[in-house]
Amino acid sequence: MTETFSLPDNWQVVLASYPELRESAATVLAASHFILDWGDRQPQQLEALLASETIGEVYTFSDFEQALAERLTEVADESSLQQQLRQFRHQQMVRIIWRDLAGWADLAETIRDLSALADVCIQQSLALLHQWQVAVNGTPCDAEGNEQSLIVLGMGKLGAGELNMSSDIDLIFTYPEEGETRDGKRTLSNQEFFIRLGRKLVQALDSPTVDGFVFRVDMRLRPFGESGALVSSFDAMEEYYQTQGREWERYAMIKARAITGSEQAKQLLSDMLRPFVYRRYLDYGMFDSLREMKSMIAGQLHRKGMEDNIKLGAGGIREIEFVGQVFQLIYGGRDKPLQQRPILTILDLLAERNLLSDYAVNELKRAYDFLRRTEHRIQAWADQQTHVLPQEPEARQRLASSMGFKSWDLFYQTLFQLRQQVHEHFEQLLAAPQAEDEAATNNISLLNAGEEEKLQYLEQCGYQEPQACLEVLDRLLELHICKNLSQTGRQRLERLLPLLVQAAAGVDNADETLPRLMPLVESIMRRSAYMSLLVENPLALSQLIKLCAASPLISHQLARYPVLLDELLDPRSLYEVPERDQQKALLNQFLSSLDDDDLEQIMNRLREFRQIATLHVAAADVTEVLPLMRVGDQLTELAEIQLERVWQLAWAHLVSRHGYPPLAKGDDPAHCGFTIMAYGKLGGLELGYGSDLDLVFVFDDEQQGLTDGDKPVELIVFYTRLAQRMIHLLTTITPGGQLYEVDMRLRPSGASGLLVSPLSGFADYQNNEAWTWEHQALVRARCVVGDKTLAQKVRDVRKHVLSMPRETEALAQQVREMRSKMRGQLDKTDSQLFDLKQGKGGITDIEFMVQYAVLAWSANLPELLVYTDNIRILDALVETGKLEKAEGEMLADAYRLYRSEANHCVLQERPALVAISVVADYPQQVINIWQRWLGDI
Questions:
Q1: Structure confidence at residue 571 (pLDDT)
Q2: What is the structure's pLDDT at 61?
Q3: What is the pLDDT, as a whole number, of residue 282?
Q4: Could you tell me which of 451, 469, 455, 467 has the C-alpha nearest to residue 518?
Q5: How far is CA 35 from the centre of its chain?
Q6: Quick one: which of 385, 319, 419, 370 has its CA closest to 106?
């Protein structure tokens, strides 16, 4: 087009002074009759725009503010305000369109500038109109005399900062508090004052004059629509959305952004609206409502002309936005980053979270960019609000050229392919995945069928004991909560039960699995959105059946914490167990939506995160994706990550009250003068599913002085309170359960000792007072969180204590006596079953042998002091010649087998007892080495 377009004579004259714009002018004027016509009608404004050289500049928001403020300096009435606003708008539109068509601005800059233009026009015109109305009617105030202001909510594309070239603007008006005007010629209620002000603002922006208009204003999104008051107070808004807000209004409110008002008022309004838009739980209950909205969108596609509408037609802009906003409504309440407005940002986040594939997101983003740029070029021609492709050959060629294509056919081919891709993604969204299964299963309503019909159904499904299964179902259906379900809840249960019964019938232990599922169904009846999750997601349902069939522990956890069902949605991630750094990042993300001072919710989220992470480990364990040693490693790393976060919470609390201790370097746990020692399974990197944490707290008493805050305290007081708060955060039972049970009995002097030990006291106790069994425990002790320098000092104490010379026979006798006492009280071995932990030659015997070896020989073999876990200490015993290689391998294999079987017993919720045949001759081989080292067992 630029080759055949000739600049009009008047433009030739004007551009003679601006040769750097001549080439771009041919491109721009060929594609925008609006600019051509504006330049002809407003030569002075054109000259002023070109002379300002702003066409070549990237604008900031403050540039828009300054430019309009200069225009409005002398404005004294509404008529001149309207004139200046319109002239400013046209001049800025020419600048924005020019940069877009010349290829100097990308899509992000164009929509940012258009949105900024609207924002400053609203803000500065409202400021003047408010000032003028106050002069007549007084200042609107609340009951305490605080001045009130009109809050303008931008909705839709304006709210998201994604305005298009000829868009109207959707607004909602509100104000914080009821009251009345003061110090005016007459007294008005605040609502009447702001209704008058709102009307004047709409008129200033929307009314056509000889200079045109600024923006078409649409107020229909306000509460009660066109029949509602033009302006509502915050209280009235809250009441409306709590009692009458509809799902499409939640959808619309995703984009809402306060454009005017104080930061405090904006925040108050945002906090008030957020619970309406974003539920605190994953909102699968929205599927039906969203599907209805999708059907309405799809229904409009058949209207005449929609095939050429790039916004509302199939594969258009609206479908891309709908894809993103569906996920925002479902997940945004739990995932704060998803509470943003720009659609491209949301699509990237959906890819990061594996809610959409990278492939799908890239296609949607590419289509969005292309469609929005096409939309702008359609509108740039005549500054008209249209999204329809032109029909005339000349207009089509003009559009294709402005998009960089040689012909309409080449342009349309690309457009068609992109729209087709978008529509395919749109069609897949919210599809009813269970439709075929429901057709097969819903010929019976288990809620209404007779006993014979249900029994026959269970027999057809293949249950071995259909009568027992019928009794299980009947007990569920007789529950009070079941009989009193809402209509929606009852409909969801009616759809879910046949799917559940049929899916459970497909596993080998179907008759055991179905009863395990009933507590979960009872639990989710209270939150029927989770029934929707299982109905809507066949993969989630299949994983649920698989895990419940494998482990009653998992089924009970799912029933107790239905939020864990969210983890079943993606089998790819369900059986993935993240590495430590990734797990830490996931925890940070999990807590990111919470305010730092919302301790109750933080505690709940920490517990929920542990349950989720543990579910992943258990799922990988029961399906044998994860080997035994990694199970212990994962559960240990999880506990350490949680401990560090709990330390951060407790530390921030104490520091805010008392300041920092002398050795502390800010909030870095590596320099805090305090360390957490882990003993037992946590210390030995062998944490199990139900393990408690054996902890000892130590502080560095080489530091002197008080904390440096307004209320300074002695160090022992500070660190004791730190430990107390940590224990509180770990052990308090919340709706999410208990984070960890903590055992502090291994600290110096046990339950009668100090909660936090000074390093010198810890060293003195271990050297002079500790019993042999306490030194045995020290073998598995290590520092897991806290000051690195102090941790090294503790390791030095441990090394010194463990490597003290000992009389081996006396040591052996003490170890034998302690083990014999334990076995006599705890061993449940009989003629058929072997006690994995306490049986002769079992887990505890291997642990005692390792501990004996470290205490007896590390004085001359420091290699035994490097690690705290049994397997690597056994390796060290082989390397040092204390065990033959075959013996070391046997002990390690036996230990792994015992622990693996014990873990599985936990998952099956039964005692750690197995048939003697399972452990073969391992116990006797362990006993042989015990007898060689320690004598009679």
A1: 76
A2: 97
A3: 62
A4: 469
A5: 46
A6: 370
Q: Does the residue 693 lie in any domain?
A: yes
Distance CA 549, CA 572 (A): 19
Cβ atoms of residues 166 and 386 within 8 Å: yes
Is 0.85 topped by the overall pTM? no
Transcribe 1-69 into DSSP letters. Answer: -TTT----HHHHHHHTT-GGGHHHHHHHHHH-HHHHHHHHH-HHHHHHHHHHTGGGSPPPHHHHHHHHH
Final residue belonging to a domain, choices 574, 600, 621: 574
How high is the pLDDT of residue 285? 64
Q: What pLDDT, on a 0 to 100 scale, did the predictor assign at position 2?
A: 44
Q: What is the pLDDT of residues 286-335, one digit of tens each?
A: 666 776 777 777 777 667 667 899 998 889 999 999 899 888 988 888 78
Cα(142)–Cα(177) distance, rounded to whole angstroms? Answer: 6
In-domain check, residue 433: no
For residue 817, give both structure tokens: 């006596």
Which stretch of DSSP H or E encloses residue 670?
Answer: none
CA distance 240 to 803: 73
4 falls within a domain = no
The CA angle 110-116-118, to the nearest 5 degrees, is 105
Gap between the Cα atoms of 154 and 273, Å rounded: 14
pLDDT over 70, % of the chain? 96
Report the pLDDT value the prediction gives residue 716, as an integer from 0 to 100: 94
Structural domain that includes position 796:
580-802
Type of residue found at 299: G
Alpha carbon of residue 616 to chain centroid:
17
Query: Does residue 777 share a domain with residue 696?
Result: yes
Whether residues 36 and 133 share a domain: the answer is: yes
Handedness of CA 330, 333, 339, 345 (dihedral sign): negative
Crossing angle between the packed helical segments 529-536 and 538-550, to the nearest 10 degrees: 100
Segments of the chain scoring below 50 in pLDDT? 1-2, 435-442
Number of domains in the chain: 5
CA gap 816, 77 in Å, rounded: 99
- If asked whether residues 23 and 161 sit together in one domain, one would say yes
3 state SS for 207-268: CCECCECCCCEECCCCCCHHHCCCEEEHHHHHHHHHHCCCHHHHHHHCCCEECCCCHHHHHH
- Among candidates 78, 93, 8, which has minimal Cα distance to 45? 93
495 in the same domain as 414: no
Please indicate, yes or no, if residue 269 is contained in any of the structural domains: no
